[in-house]
Design brief:
homodimer, alpha/beta, TIM Barrel, 8-stranded mixed beta sheet, 18 helices
């Protein structure tokens, strides 16, 4: 038995090694994080959050076991309200690792979460899909798989995402199996698991066991659950069940308070930060209570609502400030930090969409984020995954990749031989230094157009959406799925068939 | 005589005080600048730049007087090539003030340049103009004045700019007078002066004397010249004449190396930074040689060319890195710093335009910039001033204004009473804390649309360009010029008439 398992493991590892090398670079940021708040300011926020947790407490709804866990740990449990004595939360959070490896079925695509590492993931869980030819519509499993293919072939996404779009053409209670299959089969990058119920969580973990081998999954992170609190100050049973399922199986949790300032959190940024901290640390602490050492990410999704319409805003300046400050809180806590991707509230991939997306993802770098989610495709406050926006966003991700590299300061970067060769009143176009560096020195983007007006016009005068439309269709036409051991493929299919029969 | 001058001055001051108060807020950044390079890295760049200036030198073309000034100061002058002995440049740069007041004819619009102050200026000197109805075309004085009106009525621009667009309907040799008149008459914010020749520079200064009073201009900065080196390593006579004219009259200089990495500067960022420093400090030093204490701004316009097409890129990641590092160099030198506004190479105000503009202006804040130019209207690498882009860019400027404010940490910002009132599983929409803060806590933007898809559709489904089109036309329809003493108006007109007769 032990021997058979060993052979199985070896075969799976071999199959994973054979998968093709991605071009997508790993990112390690050389940008020092911005310390917007003073240490004193951070202490103030932490202290107020812990006071809040002690005096007002949080509700853990519809999950008796969680209430018992808190009670046994020394918390004050009254009904579904839990109040936390001084020290308990911080003590538990200490078990969360500072950094962990998040494995992909292609080991070359495995990533580090934490430190100065940066991982970019696409939009996850949009109910609608959009492209400029078919318009805005409900998603299908074809769309969902196509977004997995785009994530796989993306030169800038280190992560495959999970549910590119909700496939409403499949039955509600089993569609998580097909979604999970798509992201496993059409990508070999790290992926998210289902969180719609305890069962769907266990299914995602089980499918991961088929892919990675049982023993490997016991000791390693291969799937991550994205969990949101039900702000303000509630953890709902629908999230607690997946939290416990993933934690007990040693898998990773991304714990993100769902704070919309003015609606589900205070309208002031400092108030929202206090709540973000309170909700994040209770989730992190609970994960440690369930299973000490559970790898977690401190998530931040904070953004205000438009005080006129009540609609959430995305890519606005307050969200940028929240990103910076929440990053400081996560660093002090000593856990990896997740913040915004290319968020926008625009309904079309226009200038608003472009500027909001940039104002959303660029601060994440200065905030020292380790993972950014919603980095490609996100439109309309995350309700829509857009094919064109996916491609447009990749331009920002390429820019992020270059920015995180920082500035090379080797002797040859200083270009003194170029000045010697060129001197005043000349140009550097053909000099030896330029020839040595031109392939790598300047980022080459895919759909950004730098041409002259005349040349741009001669080439059809396409705007950014139109160029993106051509690009995603070409990417899907040329897509080749990464290889997979046929035995694994069969086992996955058999598992899905069995589960669907139930 | 002295008494008459005093009365004149008092009347002018009075007239300036009467001008209406702008809503446009002054910006003082609470964002700590990012120190991308270490002190050692910065020293390396400085040392290499000074070595370059000592061993290779710079050309000062077509200006005998400047060569004599350098010779008399101890530089090695051979033909038009000037080489600088160790110490000379740094010694001269020490005379440049760390900070200065830049007066507007409405004293309430005067700004501080330096420290943590941030001043936003629109595009200056575009040859073309664009709006979605009339398309791309040459500009007229009507366009030029309309852009002055938009700058004046902008809620986010602290600066009126200068030449919104080149008015080709006016004679080349006198159009600077009409341009200057427009920005003086239709705005009461600080403005740029002409730099097309020594005479045009002196005309701008003279017109400023008419507006501010002669004595006041002798002792105060009321007009600024935007000067570019002719990279690599050349200062051209066409820029040296205005430099001397403004410096001798105690007015301010914005000195910006025109470095396009890969073409007019080395393709590597470190090489380009060395050149930026070399060209900036020679301009700053020359200004001090002409007139000790001349207020200057260290400008940065660094961006690479697209290595495939040779076209300049704007709003790319390399430009962002150059902004951060050049800001560090300026801070070490102890002079105010200017960097990019909302730059883009896009031909239309689309998603590329939006994301590049954001990637261009947001790093400027993290770079600790004191002035950003090209903050509104900039399209197509600065060749085009676009009415719609002007309005779209203001969304980014509003965001910048909020971000620079940082996070309020007063007791009431912490919102503990809101948590008490609301508690878990509720909402903050109507609570007392929200009511106290909702008017000021969340930025209200003009054309960003946060509505639901359905509501957006019901309101016409307009994209960002279409909304901007409606907005600029409304702004111009409703525009009211700031008041001006009729005597000053007459004197300006008489001066222009006299100059045009010559």
């Amino acid at each position: 038995m032990r021997q058979a398992l060993g052979r199985e493991r070896a075969a799976r590892r071999q199959s994973r090694l054979k998968a093709s090398l991605r071009q997508c670079p790993f990112l390690t940021s050389n940008i020092p994080p911005v310390n917007l708040l003073s240490d004193e300011g951070l202490s103030t926020l932490e202290d107020h959050a812990l006071t809040l947790l002690r005096d007002i407490g949080m509700d853990f709804v519809g999950d008796r076991e969680t209430l018992e866990l808190w009670h046994d740990a020394g918390a004050d449990v009254a009904g579904e309200r839990v109040r936390f004595p001084d020290g308990l939360i911080r003590e538990l959070c200490r078990f969360a690792p500072k950094q962990f490896t998040y494995h992909a079925r292609n080991p070359k695509c495995s990533v580090e979460i934490g430190g100065r590492h940066v991982v970019l993931a696409p939009i996850h869980g949009a109910p609608f899909v959009h492209d400029i030819e078919r318009g805005r519509r409900y998603g299908t499993i074809q769309d969902c798989d196509d977004f997995a293919r785009l994530a796989q072939s993306s030169p800038w996404l280190q992560h495959a995402g999970g549910t590119g779009v909700e496939p409403v053409d499949l039955p509600v209670d089993t569609r998580h199996l097909d979604i999970q299959y798509g992201v496993i089969r059409y990508t070999d990058k790290p992926y998210f698991g289902a969180v719609s119920s305890e069962q769907s969580s266990l299914d995602s973990i089980e499918m991961s066991r088929i892919v990675f081998g049982r023993e490997f999954v016991n000791d390693n992170v291969v799937v991550m659950a994205c969990l949101n609190s039900a702000s303000p100050l509630v953890w709902d049973g629908t999230m607690l069940a997946p939290l416990k399922a993933y934690a007990r199986n040693g898998q990773a949790l991304k714990i993100t308070p769902f704070t919309m300032a003015g609606a589900s959190s205070p309208v002031t940024l400092a108030g929202t930060l206090i709540q973000i901290y309170a909700e994040a640390v209770t989730g992190i602490a609970l994960a440690q209570l369930v299973h000490k050492g559970t790898p977690v990410i401190f998530g931040n999704f904070g953004t205000p609502i438009d005080m006129q319409s009540g609609a959430p805003t995305f890519g606005g300046p307050e969200a940028a400030l929240l990103q910076l400050a929440a990053g400081q809180l996560a660093r002090r806590l000593g856990v990896p930090y997740r913040s915004a991707g290319c968020y926008t509230s625009s309904k079309v991939a226009d200038a608003q969409s472009g500027m909001e997306s940039a104002l959303s993802i660029l601060p994440a770098i200065f905030a020292g984020s380790n993972m950014m989610q919603g980095c490609a495709g996100w439109l309309e406050g995350g309700l829509v995954n857009s094919y064109e926006k996916f491609i447009q966003d990749e331009e920002l991700l390429g820019a992020i990749a270059v920015i995180t590299r920082g500035i090379g300061m080797q002797q040859d970067d200083l270009a003194m031989d170029a000045f010697d060769e060129v001197g005043p009143a000349n140009h550097f176009l053909g000099c030896a230094h330029t020839q040595r560096h031109f392939l790598t020195a300047v980022h080459r983007s895919a759909i950004v157009d730098n041409n002259s007006f005349e040349q741009w016009q001669a080439e059809g005068g396409l705007d950014s959406i139109q160029r993106a439309n051509l690009a995603w269709k070409k990417r899907l036409r040329e897509f080749e799925a990464p290889s997979m051991d046929p035995a694994i493929e069969e086992e996955l299919e058999a598992f899905m068939a069995k589960r669907k029969q139930k």
